[in-house]
Specification:
Blueprint (H helix, E strand, L loop, with lengths): L2 H8 L2 H7 L2 H7 L6 H8 L5 H14 L6 H12 L1 H18 L19 H4 L2
Protein name: CARD domain-containing protein
InterPro entries: CARD, CARD_dom, DEATH-like_dom_sf
Keywords: Immunity, Innate immunity, Isopeptide bond, Phosphoprotein, Ubl conjugation
Length: 123
């Protein structure tokens, strides 16, 4: 993830750690995360705050080509109203710090956008 997007998330880090439901958000990011990453986040001895820290750390390390910022924002929006509010705050920070060059809306993300083929999605 590029530095500007990382900074927008980091500005809200404490609020995310306090309020985020990491397993519900992770479920919406399953197409972006490796199985090993998901297993690490799910560790039973982790507190919700530790799971959130791990989830954010993993997302921040993702390659920009996978659009982790957009995926994270969309996952937050789709989780519930509280998470949607956090997504909007992160987007507002990102837009404010980057001026008018930022698009007004994060594009919708599909599994195919994240690099999966239609064959991967068939069961």
């Amino acid at each position: 993830m590029n530095e500007r997007k990382q900074q927008a998330i980091k500005r809200h880090y404490a609020k995310l750690v306090d309020c985020l439901n990491p397993l519900r958000v992770m479920d919406r990011l399953a197409y972006l995360l490796l199985l090993e990453e998901m297993e690490l986040i799910r560790k039973s001895q982790f507190t919700p705050q530790e799971r959130t820290r791990e989830l954010i750390a993993i997302i921040l390390r993702k390659n920009e080509e996978l659009r982790p910022f957009d995926c994270f924002i969309e996952a937050l929006k789709k989780t519930d109203e509280n998470h949607k509010t956090m997504a909007e705050a992160i987007l507002k920070t990102y837009k404010h710090e980057n001026g008018a060059n930022v698009a007004e809306k994060v594009p919708s993300i599909s599994h195919l956008d994240a690099g999966e083929t239609e064959d991967d999605l068939k069961m």
